Amino acid sequence: AEVHFHEFIIQETPVKRLCRVHNSITVNGQFPGPTLKVRNGDSLVITAINKAQYNISLHWHGIKQMRNPWADGPEYITQCPIKPGGSYTYRFNIEEQEGTLWWHAHSRWLRATVYGALIIRPPLSSPHYPFPVLPKREFTLLLGEWWDRNPMDVLNMAQFTGAAPNVSDAFTINGQPGDFYRCSSQETLRFLVGSGETVLLRVINSGLNQELFFGVANHKLTVVAADASYTKPFSTNVIMLGPGQTTDVLLTADQPPAHYYMAAHAYNSANAPFDNTTTTAILEYKDAPCVTSQSQARAIPAQLPGFNDTATAAAFTAQMKSPSKVEVPLEVDEDLFFTVGLGLFNCPTPNTQRCQGPNGTRFTASINNVSFVFPKRNSIMQAYYQGTPAGVFTTDFPPVPPTTFDYTGNVSRGLWQPTRGTKAYKLKYKSKVQVILQDTSIVTIENHPMHLHGYEFYVVGTGIGNFNANKDTSSFNLIDPPRRNTIGTPPGGWIAIRFVADNPGVWLMHCHIDAHIFWGLAMVFLVENGEGHLQSVQSPPLDLPQC
Ligand code: C2O
Question: Which fold has domain 334-527?
Answer without folding.
Answer: Immunoglobulin-like (2.60.40)
